[in-house]
Amino acid sequence: MGCNMSLKIHFLHSHLEFYPENLGSVSDEHGEQFHQAISNMGARSQGKWNPKMLADYFWTFKMDIPQAKQSRYAKCFCIVKNGSKILSTAPTEGQIDCFQGLRFLSNAWVIAIHIGLIGLGVLRHVEEVKPLLDSRVSQLGLNGVFAVDIFFVISGFLNAKAFFHKYSKCNGKISWFHFYMKRFVRLTPVYMIVLGFNTTLFAYTGTGMLWPTYVTNPVCQKDWWWHLLYINNFEESTQECLGWCWSLAADMQFYIISPLFMVPLIRWPRLGYALILACIFGSCIASFLLTYQYNLIDGFSRMEFHLHDYQTFMN
Q: Which UniProt keywords apply (predicted)?
């Protein structure tokens, strides 16, 4: 016990001598008191050692170490702290209030269409819902696929706003590695947790007559890396693991190519506007050609004309 205690005291002394910045904003008086406390503890260790002694000294002097240096990474997983931030309705600096309403309405729109589509998928006689599909309320719900476009617009706006501010602050010296890695790290960990849960445990979370239709998709175990690389939106609809994650892949791809438009807008405005207009017209022309070539004119709003081949229409 005495040998271990001597090693602990030696470590504390050396840590304070070679890394004084770890004391943060501790006053000189408290610093001297702390060093004296360590010395006294060494003297007392020759007798009977109390394992709570070190903790008592820390709390006695109430050292004012900066919060950022106190278990900074451990606090990232604090349920209380993170929960209070998530549930907080207090406005933040630079917040665009109207976006909160747009997010809520878009989320409600997306949820509504998915509820309707999931319900239609388990009906034996789909033709019975045709009168319902003729109503204007149903048309509003069936066209909820366009709500995802709102998220793309919000994401692009915020990305451009942050990029222009950063570009101006750094005088154009942007760390592209940090630019892309920040986005990847922000999305990927939680994304992979959801993918892993869906691939391994989801099949065991429910029961019922219809539950076997929701068993784990074998595609997830085979092509999970498509999601990791954010290219899963290029898979066939029948071969997708998490079909509803196509928007994450599309959003990441928009983010990757965004500097090709934002940098010219700053340095060569005319070229930047020309690129944007060219892409808008090019997108419209490509959509027209693809729609004409593959007969894609029918959308969810015309589902009533495809009740006889519902599954084929959905795929």
A: Membrane, Transmembrane, Transmembrane helix
